[in-house]
Amino acid sequence: MTTPMLKVDDIHASYGAVRALHGISLEVNEGEVVALLGINGAGKSTTLKSITGVLRPTSGSVTFLGEDITSRSPEKIVKRGISLVPEGREIFGALTVEENLRLGAFASYHRDRYKADLKEMFELFPILEERFHQPGGLLSGGEQQMLAIARALMAHPKLLMLDEPSLGLSPAITDDVFALITSLRERGLTILLVEQNAERALEVVDKAYLLANGLVEVSGTADDIKKKVDIASVYLGGEDAEGGEVQL
Amino acid sequence: MINLEFVINTLSLGSLYALLAVGLVLVYGILKLVNFAYGEYLMVAGYAIYLSAIVGAPWWATLIIAVAASMLVSFLTEIAAFRPVRTKSMDALLVTSFAVSIFLQNVVLLAVSPRARAVPLPDFFSKTVVIGGAVLPLRNLLIIATTAVVLALLSFLMKKTVLGMAMRAAADKFTTTRLMGVPANFVISAAFLISGFLAGVAGIFWVGRSGSVDPLTGAAPLLIAFIATVMGGMNSPIGAVVGGFVYGLLFNILSITLPASMISYRDAFMFAIVVLFLLFRPEGIIRRGYTEERVG
Ligand SMILES: Nc1ncnc2c1ncn2[C@@H]1O[C@H](COP(=O)(O)OP(=O)(O)O)[C@@H](O)[C@H]1O
Ligand SMILES: [Mg+2]
Questions:
Q1: Looking at the 3D structure of chain A, how many domains does it have?
Q2: Ligand 1 in contact with A41 (CB < 6 A)?
Q3: Which of B181, B288, B290 sits opposite A75 (nearest CB)?
Q4: Domain of A215?
Q5: In a domain, A121, yes or no
């Protein structure tokens, strides 16, 4: 048995008095693409915040590549190789596309490869080359999402985590995002994907965890989940995924 | 009354106020803290000049020591006082900045004296030059030139260096900036060092006007910096610069238009203008940059 690349072990987390996670455990193996599903407020983003060090879990541990990274600072964790594409994209609006990408490379900057990395991003996202000198805030939602992903990739992550990358995007751009995830997967990148659009997510992942109220409710391979959970009856249905009101 | 003298006076006053305001706004941008100890960094520069004169340092060394002292005190107050409470509430930070302000005042009060001390500045500070018939204090021209150089350097730093990018990003989205690998403490320390630098440079000219320093020297420049940033906009150094110059202009206009009997109410007029700004344009003259997302 190989040890998992990322092992989250029984983490609890809260925002002041509000308890958000009640013992989440999950594993991501190298090369895998794993989905974190669940309705709004289930604890998906909180789980990612606990992994990236933005939020300190009150108990439990996070192990990455055999190293305990629980409660390390976000800046240290990204240097270990975990990059996050945050919910809502979090583009630096007053900074140009170029500057956003340069900061993305901050965690693992190497002069010799920087130019080549930029070129690679332009190949993946041609729009970024066009918009290179424009402020990030002037980009459309879809373009900002591409920029957020490119910015995360500039750090050469070993594990890429995406928090609802299709949120608020048109169906055509959502298709682009999923196509991109597929192509990153083919390159062997390990990915942890948070999605509301479970039907789409289950098409591109190896396994998935379904969260509810800060706990893992169901987990298994993508096929398992499709069988165990009646996708049509729950929020998981693709088109109206944004409502998030339907209870499991 | 708009003659060369008025223009130079206004530019020099505006320059000084712009320096003051930018130093305050740099820290505000990142910590969202109005640092009430900021005025004390200027005061420290004044005492550094006073002490340098006692040991007989040459004037150029005196000026370097003054700026270095402001930077050091700014840097150390961040590490010793602001850092431990940074992740606590906003209120804790604000109260801490009051405490630091009072602490620094008391340090010089006890260590030096509660009374004012003379700060000797190099002779050329008090020289005058005659340009086009106008008699101008050389000091005013020096302020303008120094501010131009300092702001140009600052602009270069913020626009062209990775540190500057990181500071602008941190002022916009602090946590996301950390997610890029930029250490929180690093950008904050940098902001305090630069803020201290600006306070030091401004402090030299500030105490140079009165020729003396006392434990409460920092109060007035803090207030000016605060008012200038409220007028110009708290969200960018450019706003602070604009606010500084607008403040200088308004102040000088009031100085020459108010009748002699009312000149003592000049500050009251300035406050009234600030209240108007808060009412009608709370975001200041310069609004925030492109942080709003375009739909699409
Ligand atoms: N900043 C916050 N302050 C207080 N409570 C929060 C905060 N962020 C999230 N929560 C709460 O934590 C729980 C989990 O939220 P989150 O992890 O954002 O859910 P998800 O990403 O699955 O939609 C929710 O009950 C939410 O209300
Ligand atoms: Mg979320």
A1: 1
A2: yes
A3: B181
A4: 1-81+159-164+191-243
A5: no
Residue A132 lies in a domain: no
Question: What spatial distance separates the first Cα and last Cα of chain A, rounded to whole Å?
Answer: 34
Q: Hey, how many other C-beta atoms are within 10 angstroms of the C-beta on A60?
A: 17
CATH number at residue A235: 3.40.50.300
pLDDT digits (tens, 9 = 90+) for A91-143: 999 999 999 999 999 999 999 999 999 999 999 999 999 999 999 999 999 99
Q: What pLDDT, in 10s, does the model give residues B175-188?
A: 999 999 999 999 99
Average pLDDT, chain A: 91
ipTM of the complex: 0.91
**3-state secondary structure (DSSP) of residue A83:** strand
Quote the percentage of chain B above a pLDDT of 90: 74
Quick one: closest CA in B to A104, which residue? B180
Q: DSSP secondary structure string, B271-293? A: HHHHHHHHHH-TT-SS---S-SP
State the average pLDDT over residues A67-73: 94
Q: Is the distance from the beta carbon of residue A40 to the nearest atom of ligand 1 less than 6 Å?
A: yes
Q: What is the pLDDT of residues B135-177, one digit of tens each?
A: 899 999 999 999 999 999 999 999 999 999 999 999 999 999 9
Amino acid at B210: S
A159-163, strands of its sheet edge to edge:
A82-85, A159-163, A190-195, A33-37, A207-212, A215-221
Around ion ligand 2, which residues have CB less than 5 A away?
A 45, 87
CB atoms within 10 A of CB B219: 16
Return the SS3 of A35.
strand
Structure tokens at B189: 């320390």
Of A78, A137, A140, the CB nearest to B296: A140
Q: What average pLDDT does the structure give for chain B? A: 91
A63 in a structural domain: yes
Domains of chain B: 4-280 (1.10.3470)
| Distance in angstroms (rounded) separating the CA atoms of residues B165 and B286 | 20
**B138-160 vs B162-172: helix crossing angle, rounded to 10:** 80
| Closest CA–CA distance from residue B36 to any residue of chain A (Å) | 27
Is A75 an interface residue toward B (CB < 8 Å)?
yes
